[in-house]
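Researcher: First entry.
Model:
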Amino acid sequence: MKQVNAIDKDYVGNGNGLVLYSILHQDIHNPIFQIDSRDGTITTVASFRSYNDYEHLNVTVVASDLGSPAHSSTAVVLINLQGQAVTEPTTDDIDPPNEQRNVSIFQHQYHEVQVLENNIAPLQLIKINITNGLNPEVFRWSLVIEENDEENFDAQPVFELDPKTTTLFALKSFDRELKSRYQLRVRADRLNREPRNYARISYPVTDERVDGLDPNECRIIVNIQDENDNEPRFKSAGQAIIAVVPRTATFGYPVTIVMAFDADDGLNAEIRYRLLNEPSRLFGIDELTGKIRLIGIIPMDQRVYGFDVKATDRGGADDGRSSIANVFVYIIDEARQVRIVVAGKPVEVEQRIDALMQVLSEAIQMDVRVRLLEPHVGGLEPA
């Protein structure tokens, strides 16, 4: 009968630019028109015998996108009725009392919600919009968590759906580091036992967001956003970092590498390093990698240096969280250094070097540290 068209300039790939059409304020028990949700084509589905006294009918069309939250616009289509009035209903026009009607329950079958972790509970997440004129209390509502294609779990006590308002609530405070995404499936079944057909809306999406859903189901994705609630943690786990440097070391000599990890995400996990309490100015650190190098000449009378390394997240910003590790650098004369030749490829020895140092330390009851690991060239037999 008529085709309407709406243009959304947002990006189509994430659903913000995908347009769906529906008819507003139509009597769902006696619908006259229907609209193709995908291309906006309006067609008739019933006789006009109840509108003999009208020359025109107004049809309000709603164009909605799949964004979160969804945006919509309306347009009024004027229908001119022509020809003779229908005075006597035919047999085909009489509706059986138990006729199954094609009514879609949900206005949209896919929703996405963003929630910042460490939220206050309970928290209202989203109100699920159902077709105008439907009473949510005539349905039995169920809510499950879809972990994968084979298993579904009861969503309580994490989520709760109010059957009277179709509003989804979070009943707990989320921790993104434990779980960052929940996929929920909402189902509405009529309380009476009579069979019912539901119209499947043709959603113009190219991905799998609505795959596997029945016509009386919708899917809600709850994404847990990161809050900067974790400070960087050094690999040394609270122990002092020990390094050994020969007295003959020169400018640029690699002293050690400090490494810290942050359980947060994105910018909240970007770490920068800097030295604290290092008055000798003999050492410098790469703020991105944590590599500490010698940047001066070692005095002949000094045997140990101590300073701190501070690791700060959020790229080292003033509002970032931070941790501090202690570093001790021992200066060793050549006479106090021991060379050990180990059988095996350098890469294999490097993977097992920590265990080797622990065994040697326990054997001689002294702290053994590796100053340099390099391929052995010469005639010595491996130890």
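Researcher: Second entry.
Model:
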Amino acid sequence: MDEIKIYRGALTASEVLTEFNRGSALVMGTLSTSTNSRTAESASSEYCIPGDTSTCDPPVARWDFNEKSGQTAYDSSGNGNNGTLGANSSAGSDDPSWTIGKKGAGLSFDGSNDYVIVSDSNSLDITNSITIMGWFKLNLLQNYQHILAKRQGTNCQLRL
């Protein structure tokens, strides 16, 4: 699993294509241009549709999994949705392992009990359409496996 992003709302096919072309082997210049045709700053316009800076909606959560060690998967969206590998900050059998990902590092799950847990936050309370994107490789698909789940009730949390 690598490069997981959650967007509030459904992205169009064109927006998904643009998103997955980011980080390709050859990138020249910046990611977009401003409405006055001047080159925009890449970092500040990372989530803009090329040529349109009016729709720069960043994801509500983004885990790149490039830490390569430790018990925390940091959220780079700015919303603080950091995840803990397994049940707590101590290493355990329910922790996914750090591995090589599609882009940089990634996480490998054993298919039985590994997970990343993210505490509930207002930014993850999405009630309408949603887009979840990332890189996944399944070795085997079994009954009731999920890539992402949000639990309800007294212990609301997001599980990857």
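Model: Note on the second entry: Confidence is low (pLDDT under 50) at residues 25-34, 36-43.
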